[in-house]
Amino acid sequence: MPPAIAVPAQMRHIEAVTAGAPEVLRITTGPVPVAKVHEVLIRVAAAGVNRPDVLQREGKYPPPADASPLIGLEVAGTVVSVGAEVTQLHVGDRVTALTNGGGYAEYCVAPAVQCLPWPAGYDALRAAALPENYFTVWANLFVHGRMARGESVLVHGGTSGIGVTAIQLAREFGARVYATAGSDEKCAACLALGADGAINYRSADFAASIAELTGGTGVNVVLDIVGAPYFEQNLRCLAMDGRLVQVAVMHGAKVEQFDLSRVMQRRLVITGSTMRPRTASQKGAIAQALREQVWPVLGSGRCAPVVHATFPLAEAAAAHRLMESSAHIGKIMLSVGD
Ligand SMILES: NC(=O)c1ccc[n+]([C@@H]2O[C@H](COP(=O)([O-])OP(=O)(O)OC[C@H]3O[C@@H](n4cnc5c(N)ncnc54)[C@H](OP(=O)(O)O)[C@@H]3O)[C@@H](O)[C@H]2O)c1
Predict the structure, then answer these.
(1) Are 305 and 164 in contact (CB under 8 A)?
(2) By 3-state DSSP, what share of the chain in percent is helix, strand and coil, each rounded to 5?
């Protein structure tokens, strides 16, 4: 039996004093959470910042009823206690976890099935940069989007946390990848990540560019975070039997009018999903697929998270300001402990 690790009663964590601008995020002290029977308690070394955290801070994405009210969907660190029915993890194990909330803290609980080991050669910071984007991209691009080897995909927001992951995984699993981004510098970053083509959406019509890049055929899958303003153009980008996968609606959810005949003529599928409301067993199934198919690739160095900037936990507000500026390429991280 591994030696017990002492756990304090109190920890530092970030709280949102009210819904609002980044300044509502303050460092404070509160009780260390206790692992339930199927959970582990993790001493957090690093936590990831994700766009859904910004929405939660603004009061637009309330946490599920049974989740921590604290912000933070991914952490990496050391297991310091395990719930009564956890058999696969032990005190002292180094894990990275998709949490149900509470990641901006020195200690965080997560269902054991949502934990994965650090890939070979990874430190806490890089390990913590993985879960939210890898769970989301795997579920949406490969499961709902059914992306297959030899197909092609258009990834919107190619330098977002989601976009970087999608470009890398799509390439690794044998697809041709096109990406959109909001500047020439970001387009260059998409190409450096392995995209076959990158379109600056501020200076070009991306649907026309995709038609040109694919010789008029279109792509098999579009992974979209923009929403309503892109909907019609997204459908125009799709080849026969194409799939539009919606993972966010950053610029609007409501499409006023659209012509269903295009869906019939090209046998299109419109799908999408959210990660957070899924059950632990559904998230556990994704974790298992990642462990088998993606973790070896990460460990070999063929795909790797891109960390743009790291802030101390107490400076979570500055991390959110950077995310809202969209100046970043890849991940924004919080450094929490040792
Ligand atoms: N469904 C799920 O389960 C799930 C899970 C995680 C995240 N998400 C969502 O996925 C989105 C991305 O999350 P993230 O954490 O990766 O965010 P992020 O790193 O902050 O990226 C957001 C990106 O959107 C890009 N963007 C804005 N307007 C655009 C446009 N018109 N066309 C193309 N790109 C545009 C911005 O880059 P530019 O400078 O290029 O505009 C920015 O890089 C968020 O909306 C988030 O809520 C969904």
Answers:
(1) yes
(2) 30, 25, 40
Parallel, antiparallel or unpaired: strands 25-31 and 307-312: unpaired
Q: Two tokens at 287?
A: 């974790």
Residue 98 burial (CB count, 10 A): 30
**Is ligand 1 within 6 A of the CB of residue 199?**
no
**CA–centroid distance, residue 174 to ligand 1 (Å):** 24
Q: What's the average model confidence in pLDDT over 284-291?
A: 98
Query: What is the Cα–Cα distance from 249 to 231, expressed in whole angstroms?
Result: 10
Is any ligand 1 atom within 6 A of the Cβ of residue 144? no
* Ligand 1 site, residue 272, Cβ cutoff 6 A: no
What does the alpha-carbon distance between residue 331 and residue 184 come to, in Å, rounded to a whole number?
19
CA atoms within 13 A on the CB side of 25: 26
Atom 43 of ligand 1: nearest residue by CA position: 160
pLDDT(1) > 70: no
Q: How far is it, in rounded angstroms, from Cα 295 to Cα 98? A: 15
CATH level 2 (architecture), domain 10-130+276-335: Alpha-Beta Complex (3.90)
Which of 316, 261, 239 shows the shortest CA–CA distance to 49? 316
| Atom 39 (ligand 1) nearest CA | 182
Q: Does residue 181 line the site of ligand 1, with CB under 6 A?
A: yes
Mean pLDDT of the residues in the chain? 97
* Ligand 1 pocket mutation, candidates 114, 162, 190, 325, criterion most atoms within 8 A of CB: 162
CATH architecture of 136-272: 3-Layer(aba) Sandwich (3.40)
* Domain boundaries along the sequence of the chain: 10-130+276-335, 136-272
| For residues 70-75, average pLDDT | 98
Ligand 1 close to Cβ of residue 161 (< 6 A):
yes
Confidence of residue 337 (pLDDT cuts 50, 70, 90): confident
C-beta separation of 78 from 45 below 8 A:
yes
Q: Would the pTM count as exceeding 0.85? A: yes
pLDDT band of residue 84 (cuts 50, 70, 90) is very high
